[in-house]
Design brief:
- The structure is a single chain.
- By secondary structure, this protein is an all-alpha fold.
- Helix content is about 75%, strand content about 0%.
- It contains four helices and no strands.
- Helix 1 packs antiparallel against helix 2.
């Protein structure tokens, strides 16, 4: 996505690495909701869909932060803690924007359940979350200036 926008990213800054790891954490967290949506016709009476989505969203949020922080620490990155904090601050906003983008794209395609609608909506959500994680990494790499 960054290359498509014309941005030149230095590999040592690990922006793509951060986005990939954060997306993987998000994916693992929301996987139960996706599996339930794809395979279960009716949820049990005790499990409201919004509860399932909220739990999976919180799990994805936590796993994204943990994945970014842990993997950056494992490679010895000095900005691991700052990037983890930035992800924690920026990801909720990015998730709201990604949700709006996904719903708007599905609406534009008539909320149909054909494969092309799923592909478009999912691709746009992934691109939005990638941009969010790239912004978080940029914030994490900023030099700390004491007040």
């Amino acid at each position: 996505m960054l290359h498509l926008t014309g941005a030149r990213v230095q590999p040592k800054r690990r922006v793509g690495f951060t986005a990939a790891v954060g997306l993987a954490g998000c994916a693992v967290g929301v996987l139960p909701a996706m599996v339930a949506a794809a395979t279960v016709a009716d949820l049990p009476d005790w499990l409201h869909p919004l509860v399932l989505y909220a739990v999976c969203g919180a799990l994805g949020y936590g796993l994204a932060i943990a994945a970014v922080y842990t993997t950056l620490r494992m490679v010895g990155d000095q900005a691991a803690r700052a990037t983890g904090r930035a992800v924690a601050l920026v990801l909720p906003v990015g998730a709201l924007i990604a949700t709006a983008v996904g719903v708007a794209s599905a609406w534009a395609l008539g909320f149909s359940t054909v494969t092309s609608t799923w592909v478009v909506a999912t691709t746009l959500v992934i691109l939005t979350l990638s941009a969010t994680l790239a912004v978080a990494r940029a914030i994490g790499l900023r030099p700390h200036r004491p007040l």
